[in-house]
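Z., the sequence and structure:
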Amino acid sequence: MNNSGQNITSLAIAILNWNGQSWLEKFLPTVIQHSPNTDVYVIDNASTDQSVDYLLAHFPSVKVIINKENTGFAGGYNNGLQHIDAEIYCLLNSDVEVTENWISPVVKLFEKDPDITAIQPKILDYHRKNFFEFAGAAGGMIDNLGYPYCRGRIFENLEEDKGQYNDETEIFWASGCSLFIRRKDFWEQNGFDERFFAHQEEIDLCWRLKNTGKKIYYTGESTVYHVGGGTLNRQSPQKTYLNFRNNLSMMLKNLPFPALIGLLFTRLSLDGLAGIYFGLKNGFPHLWAVVRAHFNFYAQAPGTIKRRGKHQMKIYYQTKWLIFKHFL
């Protein structure tokens, strides 16, 4: 890491909201309290509850951006962030409790190295505060078959936080639950892929950034607590559908063709087995969700290929055959 970075002059927190008045009531005061001298925005994704009226009445210091329709996590942020002028965006879920001094370590890390483009803090479970949380934990990684996982969380298994990840280290992807990212780099990649709607759009974005030589980092010096499942419950068939479809699209977009062909065939076969497993475990709607994901992946494939960047590099894995080690 070099010392040629520049001072960060502006940072803005952007909270995407969809019918989340209860989350705003619970967590927004803490965000304001622990984020002094920082602009806080709420991007409302066409809510049908009283979220906007509540914000205007109770939080006059918070800037409200209203999207005309709900275009999911990806489109919602793409639309809303166009109206925010800051050097660093902090994309923060509405069901996150932040802690004192959570921003300072992140800013210092950005200032150390201009090639660091995105950073996530330590993400712990709001309900079990000594355990890591599903959506991000201690930084996102990926295995040689393209399966995302996290330090502190492999599939459904969550580790207890015993200080084992109190480090600052390069990772593969930073969680959209609490994602700090340079505005310039975000827009050079045209933001999130809106076809993803939700789930794994941040992994796709981080992969594209890594393909241009940028670095994604985690810092254990900053901590937030995430409730999780505020919009889509983890047991939702729609969540299964989005995760399977988006993961395949992400691989088609970002892997070099020589590695892509064999890997995609392997993944499609494994997905078939996973669909049967989910069907037996969680019911037929989850099996059907995997089938729908594949058909939609095929339908989107021509557009996905057109979105491939100028450079595709090898997969950045630290673990091989994770799914076999975990389940077999």
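The chain has ten helices and 13 strands. The mean pLDDT is 92.

Let me know what you think.
H.
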